Amino acid sequence: MADIVIGTRGSPLALWQANWVKDRLEKEHKGLVVELMTIQTQGDKILDVPLAKVGGKGLFVKELENALLEGKAHLAVHSMKDVPTELPDGLEISVVCEREDARDAMISNSAGSFAELPEGARVGTSSLRRQTQILNRRRDIKIVPLRGNVGTRIRKLTDDGLDAIILAAAGLKRMGQENLVTEYFSISDSLPAVAQGAMGIETRIDDIKTQSLTSFLNHPETRVNVETERAFLARLEGGCQVPIAAYATLEKERVTLEGLVGAVDGSVVYRDKRKGHVCENVSIGEKLADELLGRGAREVLQEAYGEK
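Given the sequence above, the corresponding structure tokens read:
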């Protein structure tokens, strides 16, 4: 019988992440028996509709959280960018692991860089955030909705005759496919999704044993940065599939947060930075969100949410 059961999605990347946690736990705690429980989420089932049109939050985590609440799993491993800012009663993100590369990456069979894509190029992405920034740079680009796991998206580059696809660098690196990357976008060219590249471990608040076993995996710097970005997102009442981006860095107890809200057609982008002491990191996120809302981001988000 397993000492620890890890709830995970069944995609290759999710299984890589869950197995990484499993391996680290078994190495740290000799004799500990860890098993994976693969669970299909709503986001995994709906593959023929762009995520932005599916609606709702927690598309990739709800079923995993139910397994925790029902006592079927001790912990769940998530890509933090998929985790809603509001968690169910009784659950918490007890660990945030060290962040992988947070940047976006382009794969193309024909162009050596984004700038070299031909006029009217067809670019695949599942993200309104990426779409906003791509179209803000080049209005001629044709965005093609792209769903599925990393391998499926890469195959669609050729199968669907796309000029390029845009993916998270972290997923490509974890899957050992960074050799396919044509170009990494700088943070200034494509601000990442909130918490992109970070893995989190969710547990029951009262499960002190599991929290104690996993605490060595927590990375304080990444946790501060992710909390800052998620505070920005929470203030905007956004999910992971809306045109919102944020990236925080920590240096000598000073947090710098850059945030963005944009129209899905790229016609307008609100972007700014805010800095402050690490102990004020949540406030930094909230205040930056308030600044952008006051400058016009509220109307842009209402339109994206279909409220106008």
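The chain has a mean pLDDT of 92. Try to locate this feature in the token string yourself.
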